[in-house]
Each structure stands twice: as structure tokens, then as C-alpha cells.
Amino acid sequence: MKALLKDLLYKVSLLSVKGDTSVQISNICFDSRAVQLDSLFIAVKGTQTDGHAYIDKAIDSGAAAIVCEQMPDKLRDEAVYVQVSDSAQALGWIAANYYGNPSAKLKLVGVTGTNGKTTTVTLLHKLFRKLGYNTGLLSTVQNQINETVIPSTHTTPDAIQLNKLLDDMVKAGCTHAFMEVSSHAVVQHRVTGISFTGAIFTNITHDHLDFHKTFDNYIRAKKKFFDDLPSSAFALVNLDDKRGLVMMQNTLASRNTFSLQSMGNFKGKLIANTLHGLQMEIGGKEVWFKLIGNFNAYNLLGVYGTAILLGEESEEVLMELSNLYAAPGRFEQVVSPNGITGIVDYAHTPDALENVLSTIQSLREGNEQVITVVGCGGNRDATKRPLMAEIACKFSDVVILTSDNPRNEDPMDILDQMMQGVKITDRKKVQVIADRKEAITKACQLAKSRDIILVAGKGHETYQEIKGVKHPFDDRQVLQSIFTVKTH
Ligand SMILES: CC(=O)N[C@H]1[C@@H](OP(=O)(O)OP(=O)(O)OC[C@H]2O[C@@H](n3ccc(=O)[nH]c3=O)[C@H](O)[C@@H]2O)O[C@H](CO)[C@@H](O)[C@@H]1O[C@H](C)C(=O)N[C@@H](C)C(=O)N[C@H](CCC(=O)O)C(=O)O
Ligand SMILES: Nc1ncnc2c1ncn2[C@@H]1O[C@H](COP(=O)(O)OP(=O)(O)OP(=O)(O)O)[C@@H](O)[C@H]1O
Ligand SMILES: N[C@H](CCC[C@H](N)C(=O)O)C(=O)O
Ligand SMILES: [Mg+2]
Asked: Where on the chain is N6-carboxylysine found, per UniProt (predicted)?
């Protein structure tokens, strides 16, 4: 795809320019290793290195233009240099311009919050497919254009991938798209230049403090998503989260709320909550849904409110919504032939773990044991480790602490930090088994008929990441194969 540099710079605030911006560009990128002939290379400061160090390498590989925050000492004749105050922000606008602003051609709804984003966007995508629309999805689990699956590497793709995917959706005739907006994405300007029709806030609790450093910064990152909305958009927030109204303090968008506990624009009342689904009063009706757990009542309310704000008819929405299942790896059940219930859930934050375990506790019918297998990812927020172990102990009869994705950390270091959260009185119910497969096997050996095994943290993931290598691993398959072997 070809474009003139000057057209790509629309809405970018420029500090200085060296060279002629009428130059033709046939590719945009922020990684020098991906530069081709006539590329525009945008030098971005990262967490590991600084793209400015690769400007010459990019020109050697054929870059025709450079966007940067600091002009290099030596400028070369074969490239045009554009200086901006914030390259990541410029990248957002450039990517949107390059792909012809695809987001403005869609009814695009973004979902932010610590937990519930994937669940919410997946339900919205399925719902709008059922309602007859061509619909796109961008999520942690996968991206989709209608039923075509495109693998996803991030919760929110980088600005170039994002605009490309949205453009592909437009080309496929999509009218609607639903995407997760992570706090990393807001801070790194992955969504700068994107026109949102609506924005949802699910909740905010402890996570990602490795990246944001303080909880206030984390709140600010999520709030910025709402601060940047235009007046034509709608904001829809969870009123029962104490930061719900904070999100909308400075937004120009129309303000809408959903709630189970007070009077929101979209008010739900939980009637029943079982291992097979939940019943809620919503939109003036009593409806059974196939999703499990109190927290999913919030996700369903957010989805319902969004559909109504997008102009859909209440009765039809509720009918379709009542038939939908949860996203993969979210409270996914694997039942053994002798009646042990294995639950695989992506709870990887203290709040999510507490929600899932308290849901499991509330669904217990007799004296069945709850056995929890859980770990924490390496190279991620370390402060959540003791908290998650403490919560696992509080709500389980047996706890097996194990590895999640160790990444570049020593699994035993992570487990030591988790053990810090185990109270002396709880030590006897805890075992530490670093090998995740062995840990799940142990849980299955300990379980009797009717017991519940929660395997938390990895949900839909089909790999375990150890020192940069992704080894095939799927909690659901591991449980399934142990259950099969055990009963033969
Ligand atoms: C912490 C983080 O967000 N990192 C993202 C970030 O990388 P970075 O800042 O570390 O980049 P860097 O390696 O320092 O490089 C700086 C710049 O130099 C460039 N470079 C580098 C080397 C070279 O030879 N040439 C070159 O041009 C790089 O392309 C980059 O532009 O920018 C990269 C390109 O977009 C991302 O792939 C990378 O995501 C990493 C893989 C990651 O793990 N991100 C996670 C934490 C993440 O984003 N998670 C969120 C939320 C998860 C959730 O809660 O659901 C998500 O949205 O997925
Ligand atoms: N509304 C909610 N409130 C609290 N916990 C929730 C909610 N919805 C889901 N959860 C819990 O959080 C886990 C992750 O849910 P989901 O994948 O929908 O969240 P996410 O925000 O997309 O997470 P990520 O940041 O990793 O992309 C679920 O497996 C469940 O345990
Ligand atoms: N999107 C989150 C998911 C964490 C999932 C957990 N399995 C882990 O690897 O820590 C992250 O990248 O921080
Ligand atoms: Mg997600």
C-alpha cells in the first residue's frame, strides 16, 4: 500500500522536519528488523531498548523516512526526518492514516478493566453474530472476523496491527467490532487515533503494578481511555466498582452505568447462581443464562447495556444472550467419569481468584472438597503472588502451588514468594509442586467423587512459556487425559 508521508502525518504534531514530506511510503513499521524499501520507520522508546538506536540500521535496510523524538547527530540525505514530541502517539495517528481510518467506518466498542474484558467482548461478538451482523473481535484469546480466527499475540495489538485488522474487518463487510483495551495499550498509545463508538469499564483491582508502578497510575491509564472519547461516543461503567464514576469524571461521552447493587441505567438483580448457570432479572424480565458466577452477572449486564446503547431491541438481545456460553478457559468444566469436577479458569489476579473460588464455595452442595492448583506468571507483577496464595488457602481445602508461565524467572523463586502469603495455620493444606502437570496429577489423585478441582491462571492458554520458549501445555487437556487414565 502506497501513501505520501505528508498524508500519513495528518493530526501528528510536528516539532521539526528535515527533507521533503512528499516522499512516497510503501510500508510503515516501528521495528528496524521489519523495514523494507521505502518504509517509514517510527523510532519508539520501549521498556527494553530504544528504537532511536536503530535509525541508521533502518535506513540501511531501505527506510525512506524516519519519525523520531530526537534528531540523530548525523542526518543522511537518503531519508526524510520528522521530529515529534511523542513517537508512540505519532505512531497511533500514522497507523490510522495509513489504513484509511478503519475504526471510523465501524461501530467499535472497547472494553477496559482488570477482569472481564475477554468475556465481555467475546459475548458481544457472539451476540452480534446471532443478531445477524458481520462482526469483528480483538481479544486475548483470539481475533476474529466473523467466524474466521486470526491468532492473537496481545490483549490489544500494536497500533499497526490494530489498524490493519480493523481495515480487514471493514473490507470483509463488518459493521461492528468489539475489542479489549488493556492499560498497557492506553499508556503505549496503541489506541491513539482509534474512533470508538462506545467504551465499557468492567472493574479495577490489583494487577500489572510491575508496569504501572502504582495503583493510581493504573487507574489513570484506564481513565485516560474515557478522557479521550468524543462526545458522540457512549461510556458504560460498572457502578458497583468504586472507580466506576471516576472513569467518567472528565469524559465528553454520554454517561451510562450498570449495577447489581444500586440504581444504574441498566439494573440487574441476581435471582439464582448454580453450577449450570445464573438467573437474573434484567430489562424487566427474569432470564436464565449459561454463564456461572456472580461476576458474570456483571459481564452480562455490560453486554446487555452495550447492545441497547447500540440500538438493539431488548427482548431479542436477551433471547440470544441467554443461549451463549462463556469464552474458552473461563470457568470451563472437565468432568471425570466418576464425578470429579475440574474447572479451568483464567483467574490470574487476586480479585479473579477470589471471585472464582467464592463462586465455587457458594455452589458446593455438601461436604465435597475444593482443591486448588495455582501459580503466578514470571516477569509480571510480583506483589500479587503472596495475595493469590493467601486467597487460594482461604477458600480451599487443599492447595497445590505450582508454576504458571515462569518466563525468565526461576519457578522456585516465584513459589517462595507465593508461600509468603500462606498463614502458618494454613501450611498443612499446601503442597508445592513446581511441575504443573505433576501438580494437576496430584490434585486428581487426592480428589474423590464430587470434589471440585480448580486449575487457575492459564485458562485458554495452550502453552507454557519458559525462558522464551513456548512449550505445548493445556490445562483442559491435562485434566482430561488424567481423568481418562484414572478410570481405566
Ligand atoms: C511491556 C510491553 O508492553 N512491551 C511491549 C513493547 O515492547 P518494549 O517496550 O519492551 O519494546 P523494546 O523491546 O524495548 O523495543 C523498543 C523499540 O525498539 C524497536 N527495536 C528493537 C530492537 C531492534 O533490533 N530494532 C528495533 O527497531 C522495537 O520494535 C520497539 O519499537 O512493545 C512491543 C511491540 O508493540 C510489544 O510486543 C511488547 O509486548 C510484550 C511482548 C509484552 O509481553 N507485553 C505485555 C505485558 C502486554 O502488552 N500486555 C497487555 C495486557 C495484558 C492483559 O492484561 O490482558 C496486552 O495488551 O497484551
Ligand atoms: N467481571 C468480572 N469481575 C471479576 N472477575 C472476573 C470478571 N469476569 C471474569 N472474571 C475472572 O477473571 C478471569 C479473566 O477473565 P477475562 O479473561 O474475561 O478477563 P480479561 O480482563 O480479559 O483478562 P486479561 O487482562 O488477562 O485479558 C476469569 O477467568 C474469571 O476468573
Ligand atoms: N495478559 C496477562 C495474562 C497473564 C496470564 C498468566 N497465565 C501469566 O502468564 O502470568 C499478562 O500477560 O500479564
Ligand atoms: Mg483478556
From this structure: 222
